[in-house]
Input
Amino acid sequence: MNDLQNPSSRHYELDWLRIIAIVILLFYHVGMAFVSWSWHIKNQETSTLLEDIMVWFHQWRMPLLLFISGAATYFALGKKSTKKYLSDRVKRLLVPLVFGFFVIVPPQIYYEKISLYSSFWDFYPTVYHFIPYPKGSFSWHHLWFIAYLLIFSVIALPLFVFLRKEKSKKLFDLMVKFFSKPGALLTLALPILLSQIILRPFFPEETHDLIHDWAYFTFYFSFFLFGYLLCCDIRLWEIIKEQRTLNILMALLTLIPFYIIWFIDGDWSNTLRITYSILKIFIAWFWVIALVGYGQKYLNFENPILIYSSEATYPFYILHQSVIIAIGYYVIQWQLNLWVKYSIITILTFSFCMGLYHLVIKRFNLTRVLFGMKPLNFLKSKELIKDPKASSLNIALD
Output
């Protein structure tokens, strides 16, 4: 019999890591208004220090979320039929995505193009022209993550179902034998690298529009697949934990050449560009696998903060960027220090998103469904009454 994990197993580290990744995302997207990189709103003064920090976070923040999503998919499939799983994916992903097209994302585009319109209501009808952004006002913007996750969940389903069968036992036995060797887990960066060598000459930019984004689509899909694969067998999951020290050491070492190249002024040679691109792929995988290992060691516990926050992270993610831009548009015009503005936008965004979640979103079935949450009648079912802790992992991640 396969050493598959019990679908009801408790892996609180996944929830904690997901919460940490969302908090990092908040700080990162607020920072986008204060660096030289192109974004929807821009403060007149920018910070190179902020860029130096954010460039590191950028390499692994979304890969970590995709890895966690892949691992969570393993548990979701273990508790329901394939048909029920697909039905839930539509409810939890497609419904918020469609809602986002017409309600969540439009304010972002409005504030970016505010000089062209007399008011938001003058702008809003342009959304229904269905002309893709940036020429038009129809876009999923930061909700690309939800769209990609929906597609990943569907196209990977046949493989995921196979990996749960007895036929896959030999495959997992071979994987355990290989990955138990020190450093072997790090070699999973190689197939990711190979995919990028093949695809990036044709799709060099990260567009998040799917049509022109096949290199990065494949990049993120790899993390989703590996998250599921390594969570399938408890022995592989334990190996991640056992090898965490070596993994974090390698993750730290990759930062040395990465930042050496990053701090080189002027035009980079082709060799430097290629080396830098390769380093980014290794950094992404090394940091994800190291953080998951340390998460198992130090974050596999539950408390009231986790129970509350794990359910709030999805609505918070859906809301956060629109709120940042709406608040940030006004704050960046104030005559204040850059870091004061950064702090104000961060605090106000966090307070508004959590306040809206607590006072409105979590309390009504309509808003819960629109934001991808389980309806209240599900939470009161006999199944959850028997297992009151189910809100932590099974609701938040399945």
